[in-house]
TrEMBL record:
SUPFAM superfamilies noted in UniProt: Fic-like
Organism: Sphingobium terrigena
DUF4172 domain sequence ranges: 3-84
Protein name: DUF4172 domain-containing protein
Length: 166
């Protein structure tokens, strides 16, 4: 599978709903199974499964960006953010931020998407980082955004967006 920025028509995003239909159906069946399972679990087991799923999503999403999180630490931190008693495992800043983001999403999934909500999520995810400017806001510099991989001394630029003229 290619990244969005690797698509020939990037950044003009389009999709064919019919091509996604089988995957959407598979997702809906899986979601139905999960809802069925949850309805048969007691409160404690339902909480445990929710925490496990939220933590795994945080770990998997972070891995896409090349950041490896400890699943057990993220689980413990998600539980704490949801007010559920857990062990005293210490989470690093990235794990704690990802866990707080997932707990926030879990509690507020009905909230409409807004700039303020996106900025809050970004702030949670960056959790105290000082090496990134403009956390929790849109970028304001004119430098073009780039998708880069490779070593710092030999970066490979895969895509460069047009400059920001805000």
């Amino acid at each position: 599978m290619r990244w969005n920025w690797q698509q020939p028509d990037w950044p003009n995003f389009t999709y064919d709903a019919q091509r996604l239909k089988s995957r959407e159906d598979r997702f809906l069946r899986g979601a139905g199974v999960l809802i069925g399972v949850l309805s048969h679990l007691d409160t404690g087991d339902r909480q445990d499964l929710s925490i496990e799923l939220l933590a795994q999503e945080a770990v998997d999403s972070s891995a896409i960006e090349g950041e490896i999180l400890d699943r057990a630490s993220v689980q413990s931190s998600v539980a704490k953010h949801l007010g559920i008693k857990t062990d005293n495992r210490r989470a690093n800043a990235a794990e704690a931020g990802a866990a707080e983001l997932m707990a926030n999403l879990f509690r507020g999934y009905r909230e409409p998407l807004s700039d303020a909500l996106l900025f809050n999520w970004h702030s949670l995810l960056m959790n105290g980082r000082r090496d990134i400017a403009n956390i929790g806001q849109y970028r304001s510099h004119a430098d073009p955004m780039q998708i880069v991989s490779g070593a710092l001394h030999a970066p490979k630029v895969h895509f460069e967006a047009p400059a920001n003229h805000a």
